[in-house]
Amino acid sequence: MIARKSRENPKLTAPEIRKEQKLDDITVRTVQNRLIEVGLFGRRPAEKPFISPKNVKERLSFAKEHPNWTVDQWKSVLWSDESKFNMIGSDGKGYVRRPVNKRFDPKYTKGTVKFGGGNIMVWGCFSWHGLGPLRLVNGKMDRFQYQQILSETMLSHLEHLENSHPDENLIFQQDNDPKHKAKIITKWLQDNSVDVMQWPAQSPDLNPIENLWYEAERRMGGHKHKKSDELFKAVKKAWESIPKERLEKLVESMPRRCQAVIDSNGYATKY
């Protein structure tokens, strides 16, 4: 009865289970012990975005369309994204009671918000062939600033890759942020003959650049900065120190990422 209640709602604490089940004849410690006996330990929930049913289907469809892509095909993708870098500490985390090997089951994950305050926003890109340039976002990026970044930063890097690797049909990847899908952006990409990968919404775990953001932050060593320009310099230095071997391993992970989405039926994965 205790274990069943916890499995139905893994966010319930031992005192809450005792109260809801009217177990006045046993202690909270006894409830905790019984949960532990059946392998339900209190753990921090994995922080993964909640994914809508529509986007779950789109993710699964994308993964099923690409399981047979070779690493050579994934080498042709120019991955892009924006990320925040904080000048303040991170939020605290709660706990969830779950069985072993269920960390990324959507039932046991905690929703996150991608962007917050007290930070700078940075745009970047990379491919198998190397890191692309970083661009500091001025304030809140809208479709006009995004077009400027594409025109002044992304396109020149894409052309450099095309000149260096003329045998590859390069594809530009971007997520489904509304400003990325704006008519002005779609037209600009078409006018500049940029081949764009069709991308499923809510899929950061499919985009290997997310791992590079974490890598850059790790390489910054937890330093704190009071000014935006100082923080951006630190991010840029960390970004440029990431070795090419790391990029190659991330691109090589794409078949496994697609398979992980298939295995999770479209929900969040470990990536």
Automatic annotation (TrEMBL):
Pfam families associated with the record: DDE_3, HTH_Tnp_Tc3_2
Domain Transposase Tc1-like positions: 1-67
Record-linked InterPro entries: RNaseH_sf, Tc1-like_DDE_dom, Transposase_5, Transposase_Tc1-like
Domain (Tc1-like transposase DDE) ranges: 77-231
GO biological process: DNA integration; DNA transposition
GO molecular function, one term: DNA binding
Protein name: Transposase
Species whose genome carries this gene: Ditylenchus dipsaci
